[in-house]
Design goal:
This protein is an alpha/beta fold and 193 residues long. Helix content is 30%, strand content 23%. It has helices at 79-96, 109-115, 126-135, 153-162, 180-191; strands at 4-5, 37-44, 52-59, 65-73, 101-106, 141-146, 168-172.
């Protein structure tokens, strides 16, 4: 079971809770505390296709992109299953990049609650949730956070981008041009400009 993190600016505690469970009401993206990296993930499906896309973007406390990924998966998955694949791909990218302390954030409340042990996962994703909980043991710290779709646009764009490519693309310390505008919007929203 992973800690559930609620990120709301009204919370005066600058450090994430170690095991607190709080209700999610956040809509916008917020940068992680200085000691953590935030891994935002999302999945995308298409009609009449036998593949799906997943996207992940990892950012530091200043909102800078340190890694990003778009991957096409050749399988006819439903929306919940592709979201699970996106969470899994984000964890794998963070592990492969060598990050030890992360916040895994996506817009599927069902998955966030299942990963944190707050509810039982649907049977279609049960084994993937167990696998992600095991994969999380490769990290020193993993918090799981829910954000509404409005706060997850860069990951959503990368997931949609994956539908038009073969296999996968990874960007390291480079910002994919397809998400630049969404990243600027996140910065404007967070800074109040």
């Amino acid at each position: 079971m992973l800690p559930f993190l609620h990120e709301e600016k009204a919370n005066n505690d600058p450090q994430p809770p170690t095991s607190a469970v709080r209700e999610v009401v956040g809509v916008t993206w917020f940068p992680p505390p200085p000691t953590l990296f935030k891994v935002n993930v999302d999945g995308a499906t298409t009609k009449h296709q036998n593949f799906v896309g997943v996207g992940s973007v990892i950012r530091d406390e200043l909102g800078r992109v340190v890694a990003a990924m778009s991957r096409q998966i050749p399988a006819p998955l439903g929306p919940l299953e592709v979201e699970a694949k996106a969470f899994e791909a984000g964890l794998q990218l963070a592990r492969d990049m060598g990050f030890q302390d992360i916040i895994l954030e996506g817009d599927s409340l069902i998955l966030v609650r299942a990963l944190c042990g707050l509810s039982l996962p649907p049977s279609t994703i049960d084994s993937m949730v167990v696998g992600m909980q095991l994969l999380s043991s490769d990290f020193r710290t993993v918090y799981v956070s829910h954000v509404r779709r409005q706060g997850n646009k860069p990951a959503h764009i990368l997931a949609k981008y994956a539908l038009g490519i073969n296999e996968s693309v990874v960007w390291i310390e480079e910002t994919p041009c397809c998400i630049e505008q969404a990243l600027i919007q996140d910065f404007v929203t967070v800074s109040g400009i």
